[in-house]
Amino acid sequence: MDFSTALRTERLVAIIRGSDAEASFRTVMALAEAGLPLVEISLSGKDALGVIRRARAELGDAAWIGAGTVLTGGDARRAAEAGANLIVTPGLGAGLEESVRQGLATLAGVLTPSEVIAAEALGVSALKLFPASAGGPAYLQALRAPFPELPFVPVGGVDAAIAQAYFDAGAVAVGVGSPLVGDAADGGDLDELRKRAAEFRAVCAR
Q1: pTM score of the predicted model
Q2: Where is 32: in which H helix or E strand?
Q3: Which residue out of 22, 33, 40, 97 is catalytically annotated?
């Protein structure tokens, strides 16, 4: 399954930014076991590249393991070497350009129409509307008026309650960090993570 198909099928990208590398790895595995296979591991987390390597080794070549907060070309190259096959950026820049050059799936951070046009010209896989909380579902709906066919993924302040509103506004998926992951990537309760995962899965299956 290619990334665009996986994104539209699963409708959720889980975002992990942990202070504990072992806990972050356990979080990735718990999410995969809970049926949430699209995972972004932020490079700003503890030993993120090591977590990506371990996750790739454990989950195999078919898994979608993303590297997030990719800012530079070096970030993109190191992430790919560690096994990331999805690159997520907070905005436009060298990290995104290098990821596209390498042929990696890309989720590019945009907020304004000009950024949407620039990202689309690069040939990105999907558009990360970030921070989505700056305008909410109404802003996404307005932004989609000139770009009705483009795949938008709101990220930032998305919880289970508002996710449906983003879907109703035309989002193909949502990206969710702390409302889903909570403190699991810092050593918190994985059973609570599994409960939240089930709640989000239910929203995404509607």
Answers
A1: 0.96
A2: helix 21-33
A3: 40
What three-state secondary structure class fits 81?
Answer: helix
CA 116 to chain centre: 17
Residues near 171 by beta carbon (within 8 Å), at least 6 away in sequence: 129, 140, 152, 153, 154
Q: Which of 128, 192, 195, 199 is catalytic?
A: 128
Enumerate the β-bridge partners of residue 127: 108, 152
Closest CA to 106 of 82, 88, 129: 88
Question: Among all chains, which residue has been given the structure tokens 């990290």?
Answer: 95
Cα–Cα nearest to 197, from 15, 9, 69: 15
Task: Please state whether the peptide bond connecting residue 131 to the residue before it is cis, i.e. omega within 30 degrees of 0.
Answer: yes
168 touches 149 (CB < 8 A)? no
Is residue 40 flagged as an active site residue? yes
DSSP state of 172: S
Average pLDDT over every residue of 5-23: 97
Q: What is the mean pLDDT of residues 121-137?
A: 97
Catalytic site includes residue 128: yes
Q: Give me the amino acid identity at 143.
A: L
* Number of Cβ atoms within 10 Å of the Cβ of 78: 17
